[in-house]
Amino acid sequence: MDKQEIIEMEQSYVLGVYSRPPFVLERGEGCTLYDTDGKAYLDCVSGIAVNALGYGDAGINQAIAEAAATGILHVSNLYHTAPHARLAKLLCETSFADKVHFSLSGADANEGAFKFARRYAREKGHQDKYHILAFSNAFHGRLFGSLAATPRPKYQEPFEPLMPGVRFAEFNNLESARAQMDEQVCAIIVEPIQGEGGIHPATPEFLRGLRALADEYDALLIYDEVQCGVGRTGTLWAYQGYADGDEAAVAPDILTAAKPLAGGLPIGAILMRQKVADAMHKGDHASTFAGNPFTTHVAHHVVSRIADPQFLAGVQRKGKLFVDLLEELNSPHIQEIRGKGLLIGVEMDMDVTPLISQAYEEGLILVNAGPTVLRFIPPLIISEAEIQRAVETVGKLLQRL
């Protein structure tokens, strides 16, 4: 089938909840994608922060082959398998966590985290302690609980009523958070760096203050690292970049992860302290496909490679280069550049949608983070030459305006 036949078939049979550009992607290598016409695109989206090791990676392909060779893609969580135990051990050893529960996506992980927080409060005898404190510009997913914690009327209103008991404070405003806290709050959820909300990093003082607030009210602190975790910011977990030698001052009680964990295979994870695990009982939460041996074997390979200190140092170095080159554009249309590592947002004085469309024509794949923010979330393996090419392309497009 040619490109148009594929697009027409999709429009006939696939629910139209996405807006897609008029090309069909067929294969990938490194940080480059190719469409059915053979055109190459430098990818600065990486499947929305998923394909951390790019496309056609030999190590991932080997891990997939190893997992497939067992003949077991799935057996369900009714039985023991080695891969999910090995992955859980790795995640705990590289973070604050004592236990891990696997899910299928980021929204799924956040829903589970809310359940765990309410169960924790209930186990301590607090029947009315079920409220969740979230923040302005947050994005935690599109399921009924995670959507309730995502203050976007456009997303929420068509599906109301949502999960009750969610309240909001202003991001990076500790006094606003304190004003919302009381004995009914069982959890605080925050992104250390807001992704969909425009690439806004939390301040160190804000995260330390939230840790103290959670302790004061015996609430659980939840970090949503679905987009900013697993090496994206130059540390394995984004919160670790705020530690400044004292990880306990910023570490959460629960952390949710998903996007890049298995290099493109669907997986999520809820990392937690032992006190949270102790509140959960057999049958309290489950997922048929989560933690299957195939995906967790691949995820172990991905996380092991990204956790390497030299790899993470490279992410930090390349992130700095990206920002330096963007600043050198000195474009009057650029209002602010924000982010950490290879999670970068460029605030513009205009809607960036036309810019993204023009970039496709130049062989560059970009994505927004709100109407006026151009977001750069390339594979973590992107080269310095590819970073320079991406910025030069954006600069050329800005000069045309």
Layout of SSEs?
Layout (H helix, E strand, L loop, with lengths): L2 H11 L11 E5 L2 E4 L4 E4 L2 H4 L8 H12 L12 H12 L5 E5 L2 H18 L7 E5 L8 H5 L4 H4 L9 E4 L4 H7 L4 E6 L2 E2 L5 E2 L2 H13 L3 E5 L29 E4 L10 E5 L1 H6 L13 H14 L2 H20 L5 E7 L2 E6 L4 H9 L2 E2 L1 E2 L4 E4 L7 H17 L1
Task: Please provide a written account of the structure.
It contains 14 helices and 17 strands. The protein folds into 2 domains: 3-57 and 309-400, Aspartate Aminotransferase, domain 1, CATH 3.90.1150; 70-306, Aspartate Aminotransferase, domain 2 (3-Layer(aba) Sandwich). Strands 4-12-11-10-7-5-6 form a 7-stranded mixed beta sheet, sandwiched between helices. The mean pLDDT is 97. The chain starts with a helix and ends with a helix. Helix 3 packs antiparallel against helix 11 and helix 12 (309-328) packs parallel to helix 14. By secondary structure, it is an alpha/beta fold. The protein is globular and about 60 Å long. It has helices spanning 3-13, 46-49, 58-69, 82-93, 106-123, 144-148, 153-156, 174-180, 204-216, 274-279, 293-306, 309-328, 353-361, 384-400, and strands spanning 25-29, 32-35, 40-43, 99-103, 131-135, 166-169, 185-190, 193-194, 200-201, 220-224, 254-257, 268-272, 334-340, 343-348, 364-365, 367-368, 373-376. It comes from Litorilinea aerophila. One of its GO terms (molecular function) is transaminase activity. Its cofactor is pyridoxal 5'-phosphate.
